[in-house]
Amino acid sequence: MARFSPEALKDWFGYTRRERRSSFFLLLLIVSVAGIRFMVPGVRMRLELSALEKDIAADSSVRIIVQENKTRQPGSARAETVIDLNRCDSASLMALPGIGPVLSARIIRYRNLLGGYAEVSQLKEVYGLPEETYRSISGRLRADGKDVRKIIVNRADYRQLLRFPYFERYDVTAILKYRELQGRIKSCEELVENNILSREKAERVKWYLDFSE
Description:
Blueprint: H1 6-13, H2 17-39, H3 41-58, H4 60-71, E1 83-84, H5 90-94, H6 101-114, H7 131-137, E2 141-142, E3 151-152, H8 158-163, H9 169-182, H10 188-193, H11 199-205, E4 209-210
Parallel strand pairs: 1-2, 3-4
Helix pairs in contact: 2-3
């Protein structure tokens, strides 16, 4: 049987000595890189993530989808409607957390008694309304002092003034006596300066008193 000599191998592949040496080193390099990639998980993962990031950077549609996912979170809160305390009905109030038919009826009854809410904080005066309920709903409510029903101070009688929740009997008596002496009251400030009303009470009632007549 004929021997397979190096000269025959050279003739078979057509490589020179230098070409064979270069091919050997190239093959060794390829095997080394492949072994590191598949045998070391961390290196493999970094290589794959790097390739994925390059693909994402090259694809604008992927960037758009990622951005939409960031801005549209599942279960995100929708904008809540602000309720006007002076125009709402019982059904609107009962849509608020912690407000049932009893409390909604009291809120409207007190609104009618006052002549309207000048400030949302007046809800604290409603009987039976818990402080924690007020804190949870106050941000969804509004009230404007321009919407309240006014009392014409220089024409109102004893019963009309006494019906107002912020006035006590002694307040009403003092106002009527002062009006009788002066003929006409010009402002809340005048009542404070003459010790008819305290400064604190004047701040509470100023929205409801009309001195124009």
